[in-house]
Amino acid sequence: MGRMMTNEPLIVLSGVNKWFGELHVLKDVNLSIARGEVVVVIGPSGSGKSTLCRAINRLEPINNGEIVFDGTRLPEEGRPLARLRSEVGMVFQSFNLFAHKTILENVMLGPVKVRKEKSDVVRQRAMSLLDRVGIAAQAQKYPAQLSGGQQQRAAIARALAMQPKAMLFDEPTSALDPEMVGEVLDVMTGLASEGMTMVVVTHEMGFARHAANRVVFMADGQLVEEADPKTFFANPRTDRAKDFLSKIL
Ligand code: ADP
Ligand code: MG
Predict the structure, then answer these.
(1) Nearest ligand, CA of residue 217?
(2) Residue 146 and which of 53, 175, 220, 247 are 20 to 30 A apart at CA?
(3) Does the C-beta of 22 come closer than 6 Å to ligand 1?
(4) Residue nearest atom 15 of ligand 1, based on CA coordinates
(5) Site to substitute for ligand 1 among 18, 25, 60, 224, most atoms within 8 A of C-beta
(6) 9 close to ligand 1 (CB < 6 Angstrom)
(7) Nearest to 8 by CA among 62, 53, 70, 64
């Protein structure tokens, strides 16, 4: 089996196409993500970045092409799909915490309800994750009692509680007040340095420069350009990438 080989990519998209009705939002996307790699996806609004992320854990079905995760083609439904979802953590712009549950309960929910793990074991793991993201003191509070940055760190802890093989971040700091962006990026940088495989859609070019192994520039549903961050930012090859960078930097 391919999954025995440690250098096998964790995520492989081949010839992926996605339409919303008449709108062609992913155009023949080919992308291979190595284990432990941090890929930052940038590009204009509407270029298909969120759809790409959502396709990777099959929140969006694709129309053709293939996505392979950890040696297995993405399952269509049922238990295998649930397992895939639990192996790919996702953090969105909006934190999506359950308002009527405490932070600790939010973090414990997936492992206990979906994975049927023992709650003692999960509680310990959840507390250590909350500690790691710097909000152990907020464990018994409800989401509304936390700042946006704390809520987003709780959302990251919740995703990590499932012990995912990869983490997808879709503009995780875009909804935050500026003073809270750093604390969330710090947690993400820590994860990256510990070897987590990450796909990060972000406009935070500082994060891309420092934490990414590769920057992928998307425009109009296509992967237009990719390079290591140093090369990409110093020397974007395409006019579209140059134009995009001139607007955001
Ligand atoms: P990005 O994240 O880069 O801003 P998206 O992946 O969200 O881009 O969207 C790509 C395109 O697909 C946009 O034109 C958007 O309006 C469209 N789109 C996204 N989701 C849907 C949907 N559920 N139904 C119809 N069109 C959609
Ligand atoms: Mg988006």
Answers:
(1) 1
(2) 53
(3) no
(4) 46
(5) 25
(6) no
(7) 70
Digit-coded pLDDT (tens) for 40-70: 999 999 999 999 999 998 999 999 999 999 9
Looking at residue 56, its amino acid is: I
143 within ligand 1 shell (Cβ under 6 A): no
Q: Which amino acid is at 166?
A: A
pTM of structure: 0.95
